[in-house]
Amino acid sequence: MKLENIRLLKDPDTSFTVFHETNPFSKWHQHPEYELVLITKGKGKRMVGDHIDRFEQNDLVLLGPYLPHEWNCDQEFYEYPDGFKGEGIVFQFLNDFLGLQFFEIPENRNLKRLLDESIRGLKFNGITREKIISLMLDSYQLDGTDRLYILFAIFMILAKTKEYTLLSSPGFMEPHKKKGNDQMQNAIEYILQNFQSGVSMKDLISVTNMSNTAFCMAFKKNYRMTFKEYLINIRVGYACKLLIDASLNISQVAYNCGFENLSNFNRQFKKRKGITPSRFQHQANSDKT
Known about the structure:
Elements: E1 4-5, E2 17-21, E3 29-30, E4 34-41, E5 44-48, E6 51-55, E7 60-63, E8 69-73, E9 87-93, H1 109-117, E10 122-124, H2 126-136, H3 144-160, E11 164-166, H4 174-177, H5 182-194, H6 201-208, H7 212-223, H8 227-245, H9 250-256, H10 262-273, H11 277-288
Parallel strand pairs: 1-3
Antiparallel strand pairs: 2-9, 4-7, 4-9, 5-6, 5-8, 7-10, 10-11
Helix pairs in contact: 1-3, 2-3, 5-6, 8-11
């Protein structure tokens, strides 16, 4: 699936955007704004860069500029007679919406550090998430002045928090920053959109329009591993999320993540995680109790 450039419309008398999303969430896309996303209704698969996870209600994530992302609700949220039943609240702002120097002043060093880290995507948890959610709920119904000071209150929380998880891998955005590297972007996007089914070298050569040798060399240079290793890492990473969720058995998880047989799944999972999928699931569920 092609990476789209999708931007929310900003009112002419506002400096940033607060949006209540009630339509189906946008597919794999990017934009130049920072984006704080709160899912108020829905659950499904979230993709941020090369990180793939399950999301549920109250999922709260901060995305840096041009970081590709997608929230894809499960089919049950599309099957209502009145239409799509997912909802979210989105804050979007450009780096210079408060002036060129606002985030550079000494008092904002901690906030600037966190915004720099958001190039990988940040998922918030704990008290931080609770505080920010309480500020974001119903914010789209307020006037511009109230929205601005809500955003300032959120900035204060972000500047002081350590309650977040980095999502995408450190090297994911590097090829996206380099001019003339659309081929690698196309390859990664194809892998992320199709990892649950078959992804072959032939497919990637087709989407990048490169020779076999040139593609292999370019991919390993950018990602420090072969595309097959990258693909398996993505599949195993997503398998961990499904195993923790515990709604599927081991065989279902294996096939849902794109492995053709259970023995290969067990072998690849243990190679990367040091334990079998069943042991991983048992430990994860034991930690919940």
